[in-house]
Design brief:
Blueprint lengths: L3 H13 L2 H8 L3 H15 L4 E4 L2 E4 L1 H25 L8 E6 L2 H14 L4 E6 L2 H9 L5 E5 L7 E16 L10 E2 L8 E4 L4 H13 L6 E4 L2 H9 L4 E5 L9 E7 L4 E9 L6 H13 L8
Parallel strand pairs: 3-4, 3-5, 7-11, 8-9, 8-10
Antiparallel strand pairs: 1-2, 5-12, 6-10, 6-11, 6-12
Amino acid sequence: MINVTHLRAFHAVATEGSFSKAARALNVGQPTLSSQVKALEAGYGVRLFDRRGRGVQLTDLGRSLAEVTNRLTSLQEEAEALLSGTENLAHGTLAVGADSPGDAMDLLAGLRARFPGLGLKITMGNMESVLADLRDYRVDAALLSNVPIDNHLHAVPFRRAPLVLVAHRDHPLAKKKLVNLKELSGHALVLRERQSVTRDLFERAAVKTGLALNDVLEVESREAVRAAVAAGLGAGIVIASEHEPHPGLVTLPLGPSTIEVTEYAVCLRGRRRLSAIRAFLDLAVEMADASVPRK
């Protein structure tokens, strides 16, 4: 049977990124911690870390084991919370993932105001990467757009926002009040990566209207979309709530029909009753747009 103390030592090093930091986190001597990790490796004849100077890097097997220990640690914390029946949010940390900073920061600000002792951590990424973090227990809850149907997830509708066109003030379409998708034919476009909700929704709408996407610059962030548009590399497609005003750019609604994104506050279904996660979901319901239908 695996030695739980050795596994705990491995998890601390994997989380902290070094033996010295892990030893301080566990309040043990570094030689003791090192011997525990070495015993784990020797017991199974494996290498979990590559030692490089003062730091360490997980091997492929180490990364896989770290995903397991992340889940084990979260499950232990859940068990403690359930057994103690605590509703105290004066301490602890809530890790949140999000695919857009704007609304996520509003929600976290509301949590901080209500529970000033609760630590908050936020991780940004596209929907696929944040969902992976959620399923692997790297984050506790998330704010995501157009969440797929999944019986393992609990999702609360939060806000709606349309896709809009962002163009340079000198762009041929910049003076229009509304841009139909077909009018984008022949114009260079700046789009997010294919894994993004924005790109997926726009491409679906383009197919329906017969718009061919022949001249596309693909970038990996909303900031890169704005920078590319400002540099005259094309017109960009973004979610309206994510766009920050820029003196050289204009924002134009898209038609003929609105392309909308719905944001959801999400967690794993089995964890929704934990106090910090429940507080996150309850606040999302309180702050939700009145126009967003409740499930």
